[in-house]
Amino acid sequence: MKQITPHFTRYLQNRSSYFLQAGEAVNPERNALSLGLIFFTAILVLRSWENFSQPGLYAEDSIHYFNFYYGNIRTLGDIFQHPNGYYNLFNNLAAYLTAKADVGLHPLIYQSVCICFCILTVTAFSLSGLITNRYLLFISPLLLGLSGLNHLYYYISLTFQMYVVVLMLLVIMLWRRRAPAAVQLLLFVFMGFLIWSGPYSVLVVPVALAFIFFFHDKTLQTVGLLLIAIAYTLSVTKSTIMLENILNPDILLLWGSTLVTEVFFMGFKDSINAEKLILVAVTFLTVFFALRGDRFYLKTAILFLIIIIASFAPLLLSKKYLLYQTIYPCHLVIAQFFWLVFVLVTADRLLARWPALQHPGGGALIVVFAIFILADNIEHQDKRKVPVLAAMPRFLEKVKEAENMGLAEEGRKMIISTNGTSIFKAAAIVGDRSKNATLVDRIHVQ
Known about the structure:
The protein is mainly alpha-helical.
């Protein structure tokens, strides 16, 4: 131990820098990036126009947000509601502010917030400084936005922003660009807010520890985020946590098989065998051998793998898995998104390793990734469309009609509802919402 300690101390003192250094590329290919973002946005809208043109209250948007905040009767303090045992401030703040608008606009506002935040998340990675090749800068928004975000719900459901906020949080943590002190402070506050916006932000803990171990930059900021993440984790209802699952062989087998089939093979395979495991192992060994001299890449790759592997912990080490008894696409999104990030960054460093391949290799990768995106969206149709909530416009119109009936002044109320996703229903209590109010009608819009 006495011999190890001095070497360990020396390592910590001589850790490499994470920020871009003088002479390193800083994404000068703005045109390629801008073109990629334009193509991504255009394809996204065309791909899912049927859903985008008919906003609805999908998933738990109805019960947790619309039903709770409708009528603009809640206080700002109500954004701290946590019916599932954890805080998600971003979603609740968005719903709280939306409740101040005309009710006919609520689904559209929810959807607009989702679309904007998803596009910003994809853009944030493109601006991170991790990708320098112009061809990869062009294709990265399409790959991450059309395949990495593995279900349309991220673009149309406020509920699913609890996963996107964590993607944004981790992407910002990975930025290689230096910023003025005031900007760094604002980003720190923003990241702290994102930590308190979803249970998957617990991933900040292992990522922050890895950052501190590998790099000397961002130490103060990283320690601050680590403390905020620990505080958030301690706020989660203890009954939801089952750390003993880490010793359960069935859980570990599920963890490993899901990692291979749903992440490394992106859901194109539904079982594992020796050939698949050998292929994965050979791929990793080949890449790491080819880039063995690139210490920055090796450390960053480990960061990505920590995120990918640890992203299953919030589900598999909690009672949520006992409740669901399956792994849904939302439980895979962080792993799949960062697996594609891993692939993009690996390709970028390989092309940088052999400059002669920058143009032909980059062009070939655009074709390969485009074919993958097309095949992925054909194979997994829930990435591009979900059943439209056709009754939503009639429901909103009925609510607006009831709002003009003067029910509150007469001490009366009306309950208007409609079906949402699965078992969830949107319901608006129009008029006097006190316990003594007279219920004059209950209408369900089909």
